[in-house]
TrEMBL record:
It comes from the Bacteria. It comes from Rubellimicrobium roseum. Keywords: Signal. Coiled coil: none annotated. PANTHER family: ARGININE-BINDING EXTRACELLULAR PROTEIN ARTP, MEMBRANE-BOUND LYTIC MUREIN TRANSGLYCOSYLASE F. SMART domains: PBPb (SM00062). InterPro entries: Quinoprotein_dehydrogenase (IPR022448), Solute-binding_3/MltF_N (IPR001638). Residues 17-247 form the Solute-binding protein family 3/N-terminal domain. Transmembrane segments: none annotated. This is Quinoprotein dehydrogenase-associated putative ABC transporter substrate-binding protein.
């Protein structure tokens, strides 16, 4: 009986549409109007499959997978960190890292490591509970930080926007953010700021991550099909990311990825 149920799992994947589980307000990655870079990647893969894109929208917070992918309302999450047990991960389609965001003409614009002595007197913004917070603690930089929410329904409250607004207003001197969020926001909306990838941090926790697509556990055939699509379209995916302003790294996360 269990074997029969497992065999039926792949049948949940639609053969008539590329059904994507997505956050409607996760700019710059996923946006309900279709302008996010994950939306463009979804369109690319759907075109390769010869199917239209159909979205199931749900905020990326508690219950996201349960109410979308696990409920068979959709078949793939475009952006999902490698190694999460809630989903079956495809091969990664992006490696990226956290960045420092500063004012382009400010005294911290050239800083590229959290160990820089210039940060000892800086007012730093960081997402609460994110990996960079552990590095800030080790460097003794927690005395003057401002924390922003890790999980939020960005239709109503957007911590990344709040952080960059505070930086531009002079309420903080530096923001430590996830590059695939900060890079495009700086490029597209904040030309007076600069985002510098953190590539020199050698101690844990790591600040670079591989991003995969997530499918339901047991859907190995669907995973293999997506892996093939990612492999054949990697150059086009990279082009979408670069155009958006995402800092993409080599597979080891040690340096910026060379343009192929």
């Amino acid at each position: 009986m269990a074997a029969t149920a497992q065999a039926q799992v792949p049948d949940l994947v639609s053969e008539t549409a590329f059904r994507v589980c997505s956050d409607p307000a996760a700019y710059p990655a996923s946006v309900e109007d279709g302008t996010g870079y994950e939306n463009r990647i979804a369109e690319l893969l759907a075109e390769a499959l010869g199917r239209p894109v159909e979205y199931t929208w749900y905020p990326m917070s508690t219950g996201f997978i349960r109410n979308t992918l696990a409920a068979a309302e959709c078949d793939v999450v475009i952006g999902y960190a490698q190694g999460d047990e809630l989903v079956l991960n495809t091969n990664h389609w992006m490696t990226s890292t956290h960045v420092l965001v500063t004012r382009r003409d400010g005294p911290l614009a050239e800083v590229d490591t959290l160990a820089d002595p210039k940060l000892q007197e800086a007012r730093i913004g960081v997402i609460a509970g994110s990996p960079p917070a552990s590095h800030l603690a080790r460097e003794g930089l927690l005395d003057d930080i401002r924390s922003y929410e890790l999980f939020a329904d960005r239709r109503h409250n957007s911590p990344p926007d709040e952080m960059l607004a505070d930086l531009e207003a002079g309420e903080i001197d530096l923001a430590v953010m996830w590059g695939p969020i900060a890079g495009p926001m700086v490029k597209q909306r904040h030309p007076d700021l600069v985002a510098t990838p953190l590539l020199r941090e050698e101690l844990p926790p790591r600040l670079s991550y591989r991003i995969t697509m997530g499918v339901r556990q047991g859907e190995d055939a669907w995973k293999r099909e997506l892996n093939s699509l990612i492999r054949r379209n990697q150059d086009r995916i990279d082009a979408i990311l670069r155009e958006a302003g995402v800092p993409i790294l080599n597979d080891m996360g040690t340096e910026l990825k060379a343009e192929g």
